[in-house]
Amino acid sequence: MKLTSFMKEIGFDDTKISNIEKYTNNFDLKMPLLVINCDIHKDRLDKFDKSAKKIGLDYYRLKCVYGKKLTDVQIYNMYKKKLIKKTDFINIIEVSINLSHINAWLKILNSKYEYGMVCEDDITFKPNFIKNVNLMLNELQSNNKNFDILYLWNGNWMNTKSALKPVHKINKDLVIKREMKPFNAGNVSYVISKKAIKLILGKILPIGDPVDLFMGKFYKQLNIYTLYMKYDKVNMKDISPLFVSGEWDDKYYIDSDSQSTQDYDTDNLQYIINNYKN
Asked: Once rounded to an integer, what is the mean pLDDT over residues 89-108?
C-alpha cells in the first residue's frame, strides 16, 4: 500500500518502528506485539500496562486514529479519493478503527518478522498468557498446521461457531479450530501473517465495513484459525483461557463504548457525504 500525502494527513502511517526488536521477545516465535490505544483513553493504557507488566510482556503502543478529529471536508475527500464508500452501514469511527488496524499491519509489514500480534487496549491478561500462547504456536508448528490469522479471542458476533472445523486439540482449554464461513470474531487480540496483511490491504479500500467484519470475509483465501471459547449462558460471557472477562466482552453491550477504543455516537458516512457542502 503506497500512501499519498492526503492519506498520511488523515492518519495512515507506514513509518517503521525504530526499536521494534524490543517488542519481539515475548514468545518463542519472535514477533512484534502492538496495542492500539487512543490518547483519550489513558485509563485503559494504564490498566493494560499494569496487566502486561505483571506477566512480563513488552509491547509497542500504537496511537489510534481518532475518528472524531476528522473533519467533514476530509471525510468528503476520502470518498472522492475512493478511500471510503458512501454507505450508511458504518460511521467515521469505524473507518478510523480500520485505519488503526491498517497502521498496525503496516508496522508489521515494514519489519523483518513474518508475524505480528495486535491487541486492543481494554483487555486484561491471565497469568498463563505467555505460556499458553507459546503452547499454541509451538503445537501448530510441530503439527504442520500453518495459519495466516490466529484469533486469540473470538466473540462469535455472527453466530458461526457451529461451522468451525477442528484443527488441533492441545488440552481441554486450548482447542484450535478453523473459520469456514463469513464470520466476525472481533479484533480484541490476534496474530497475523505478512501474507494475510498483503492480501487484506490489497482489497480493503474503499473502506465500507467494520474491520473485524471485513477480515471475516477471507475465510476461503486464508487459513484463519481461532482459539475455541465456550460460552457461559448464565453470565452471558465467553470463557477465555487467555483473558480476564470484563465489560469489553459483554454480549449485551454491543453498541457500548466499553467494547471499542472510540465513541460510536456519530453520523454515518452516507449522511455526512450527502450533506457536505463546499
From this structure: 97
- Give the separation between CA 152 and CA 59, rounded to whole angstroms: 16
Q: List, for residues 239-275, the tens digit of each pLDDT value.
A: 999 999 876 677 654 444 444 555 566 899 999 999 9
Nearest-angstrom CA–CA distance, 255 and 66 = 18
> Is the Cβ–Cβ distance between 187 and 233 less than 8 Å?
no
Whether 120 contacts 189, CB under 8 Å: yes
Give the residue carrying C-alpha cell 486469540: 152
What's the mean per-residue pLDDT of the chain? Answer: 93
List Cβ neighbours of 68 (8 Å cut-off, separation of 6 or more). Answer: 92, 93, 262, 263, 266
Single out the residue of 99, 130, 174 nearest to residue 33, CA to CA. 130
pLDDT at 255 (0 to 100) = 41
Cell representation of residue 63: 496511537
CA neighbor of 20 nearest in space, from 104, 81, 111, 90: 111
CA gyration radius, the chain: 18
Whole-angstrom distance, CA of residue 269 vs CA of residue 98? 14
**Largest distance between two CA atoms of the chain:** 60
Interacting residues of 57 by C-beta distance below 8 A, sequence separation 6+:
26, 33, 125, 129, 130
Nearest C-alpha neighbor of 124 from the set 33, 228, 24, 52: 52
Query: Which H helix or E strand runs over 61?
Result: strand 60-63
pTM: 0.94
